[in-house]
Amino acid sequence: MGDRKTRAGESSAGSRGKAPGKKAARTPPLVRHDVSLLTDDDLYLFNEGTHYRLYEKLGSHVLTVDDTEGTYFAVWAPDAKRVTVMGDFNYWSADGYDLAARGSAGIWEGFIPGVGRGTKYKYHIRSRFGGFRGDKADPFALYAEEPPLTASVVWDTWYEWNDRDWMASRADRNALDAPMTTYELHLGSWMRGEGDRVLGYRELAPRLVEYLTRMGFTHVEFMPIMEHPFGGSWGYQVTGYFAPTSRFGTPQDFMYLVEELHRAGIGVILDWVPSHFPGDAHGLAYFDGTHLYEHADPRQGFHPDWASYIFNYDRNEVRSFLGSSALFWLDRYHADGLRVDAVASMLYLDYSRAAGEWIPNEFGGRENLGAIKFIRAVNAECYRAHPGAQTIAEESTAWPMVSRPTYVGGLGFGMKWDMGWMHDTLRYMANDPVHRRWHHGELTFRMIYAFNENFLLPLSHDEVVHGKGSLLARMPGDEWQQFANLRLLLAYMWAQPGKKLLFMGGEFGQGREWSHDRSLDWHLLEYDNHRGVQRWMQDLNAFYRAEPALWQQDFTPAGFEWVDANDNENSTLTFLRIGRDPTQRVLCAFNFTPVPRSGYRIGVPCGGTWQEVLNSDAPEYYGSGLGNLGAVEATPGPWHGRPFSLELTLPPLGGLFLRAPREVSS
């Protein structure tokens, strides 16, 4: 997209929103039905389930027709017998502004002169069935009233982008062989203003850019910013699949935030929720008096975990709607990736259901064939239209080839969250160190499957809510040990093969469990222990980004070698990370007990001086200061099957990173 200027309706209605139409009558009608943005090809692709730019045609679009400015409205409601537009332009009357049905496509449309940008509106729908009448927000609205108000707002997505350099380089920055450390963030609770005031997109921009730049994160992932009625859903109960929430400003304000992040060299990933939607009266549920977007049978159409509705992926028009939403955020908002929420719930018909509570597919299986078809098609289109972007699956099962291309039978995602690593590692870390020797396999098991997918390692918001406590609070021991364990956890995570994601607050040892209703506890940085964790994260990111061995071969076994995976008696792990240049090597050593290990011998592939680049136990991180004085000389003699060895001091509850001497050959 680069610095392309975009305006709703521009591609189909000519320059600056001009639309074809007959000459206006002397007495202008309330609604003109001779204006349309829809072509026969649009209708065909929509009904076929392959229209991925519906936002250009449906919804509300400000146009100039015969020198008269107004707004064109189009909405899909195939089982309606009458659809009218109501809003602040007609005192919210449900009568008088009727849309006309477009053939048999189920779309109602019309052009209302005099209605312009900023107008609040809804559709009043009268169904052919059961006497249903309802006031519905526009499924394709670009903007909405600030909750708890629920009207749609006529708007556009015109913006003069100034992130050309980022867009030209993002394919390299988002590549699978590039460094990726993602900071997951909830906009309403990351940082607040005086008096606990919620900050807007533009106010957040300089603060967030400065912080992420200083901390060294490569990407930020926003929890869902799509419009949602209930703040306590954290954005995961979406009603506006084409509208950034108005809680923080206008669409252009959000574009400014994205642009400022891009200008600072930070990628933007958006959390996207095509798995379910809420039952709010103004939303998608029972839209035209029928189960239009959702399955009618609750065994297929209602989600028991989230008390929400499941999209009917077998319906072509629903696939066009959702696919258009995915492409919209990439096309119009320059998003660099989509993290797709709850993919497992889409793939399995029996997800969270007991026997008899679900309907098998046509072959008698539990796989949701419509969802699989949809996921593959949307991923393929995302990568076709935006080769530099990424789609990332939150998928918690052993479904095969989630992050493999569709042309080899995969689902087509670029990456997949490694939920198994997260569960195993946090369960291990929660153990008192004296018992960890009996749980060593929870650390080593990952390497059996680590390269089956392109894994991203997440410590997300889900791990610090629902009574789980913060990451710091989940660490065992006294205060010093808790902070040491947290630094050790981050060191171990950053050393592992795979990209990284950390939820906000984890980088400085947030003490309280996260709440969407309050800011992070930034005052904790007045204390040395919290500042130590933050500085550790900062230095860890800087070293990680500068060291290709830690990210260049994340998704191939060539980038990882065990040195010793079996020392459960001492609860230690040692392994090598390797770049494409095999002389680029980093030795990673971890001691998961509070007992220092002096004279701990480790086999290495080459002689020379190995530099101790990072030590999580250093005093500046609130550690005890044990280490190896910056370097260790390798001595000849086989150890761990290698021709040289190092004699190290492993600090208590500490992680070490030692860089191999590149000038010495193996």
Question: What topology emerges from the helices and strands here?
Answer:
Elements: H1 10-13, H2 40-48, E1 59-65, E2 68-76, E3 80-87, E4 100-102, E5 107-113, E6 120-127, E7 133-136, E8 152-153, H3 164-173, E9 181-185, E10 192-193, E11 197-198, H4 201-215, E12 219-222, E13 226-227, E14 240-244, H5 251-263, E15 267-272, H6 298-301, E16 302-303, E17 308-309, H7 316-331, E18 337-340, H8 343-347, H9 369-385, E19 390-393, E20 415-417, H10 419-430, H11 441-444, E21 455-459, H12 479-495, E22 499-503, H13 528-546, E23 560-564, E24 572-578, E25 585-591, E26 597-604, E27 608-615, E28 631-639, E29 642-650, E30 654-659
Parallel strand pairs: 9-12, 9-22, 12-15, 15-18, 18-19, 19-20, 20-21, 21-22
Antiparallel strand pairs: 1-2, 2-5, 3-6, 4-5, 6-7, 6-8, 10-11, 13-14, 16-17, 23-24, 24-25, 25-30, 26-29, 27-28, 27-30, 28-29
Helix pairs in contact: 2-7, 4-5, 7-9, 12-13
